[in-house]
What we know:
Elements: E1 5-8, E2 36-39, H1 48-59, E3 61-68, H2 75-82, E4 107-115, E5 118-126, H3 141-158, E6 174-179, H4 188-197, E7 203-207, H5 215-231, H6 246-258, E8 261-262, E9 269-272, E10 275-282, E11 285-288, H7 297-307, H8 309-332, H9 340-347
Parallel strand pairs: 1-2, 3-5, 3-6, 6-7, 7-8
Antiparallel strand pairs: 4-5, 9-10, 10-11
Helix pairs in contact: 7-8
Family: Belongs to the TRAFAC class TrmE-Era-EngA-EngB-Septin-like GTPase superfamily. Septin GTPase family.
Protein name: Neuronal-specific septin-3
Domain Septin-type G: 59-331
Amino acid sequence: TTTQIIQRHSVSHAGSHTAPHSGSHGHGGSHSSSGGSTLLGYIGIDTIIEQMRKKTMKTGFDFNIMVVGHSGLGKSTLVNTLFKSQVSRRSAGWARDEKIPKTVEIKAVSHVIEEGGVKMKLTVVDTPGFGDQINNDNCWEPISKYINEQYEKFLKEEVNITRKKRIPDTRVHCCLYFISPTGHSLRQLDTEFMKRLSHSVNIIPVIAKADTLTIEERQEFKQRVRKELEMSGIEFYPQKEFDDDMEDKSDNDKIREAMPFAVVGSDKEYQVNGKRVLGRKTAWGIVEVENPNHCEFAQLRDFLIRSHLQDLKEVTHNIHYETYRAKRLNENGGLHPISSAETQESNL
């Protein structure tokens, strides 16, 4: 079977509807050129994009982001800054002076955000207690368990005989891992966590509270972190092996070279040169969160939300979830379809 590429050339509006290549009329209305043909009129294939857009605007979509790092690194503030609203766990009625839990806890809070007619159900998963103990051995286990439980929940819905039209998606699409701005090197816990979870979730490492480092210290620390991650064999998102083509590779290489992004978060506004800006006020001036000369927050936001949000969801579904699914089905010799009563039990 030969697949031909057929393209429609724009038609002149001066009254002439002649095909752009001579001799095309004698071959049933198309002219073969370099394995392709020219359409003589408008079909409407290009409207599929608009159809998809309308459908997405009606249904909305889910995005689940996990934040991991020890307390005091500004995780809640950064998430609030990213989505320009009070979406973090601490903003949802949790006391700021709550005690650090003795073990790692998983706390998820969901909000529906609407912008330009598009609805997004955003779930922020926080991990209080991570890295805050004297002995932090195996403190990644509750996090790994939670990630796999969401895959399991999705899988059980998938193998039902009567499936829901739209399976609720609680799978973690992105894990923001907060690195302490020590300026020295990664902690053993940092490398251990990322090594163990990089194959089951999209990890995006960020250097927290970057305004505590000078520009030179920041660049040196970023290079050191990248080198240490490489030496430990840790692949963070976007992973090289998932680049679709050369254009993808070129775009993602630029992002990988800039990572980990050194960020500052703030949900407070200040007046700077007649403009209201998000920032952190210090004795020597205001650190502007969205100013690329001050920190790399804008790069992180553009990457996470404006260019790669859909890809994060696709890599989660097509790579991480598929890996989990294949493993589970191999273990079980195929999961048996389950009743709705069993599904309800598993969701409790």
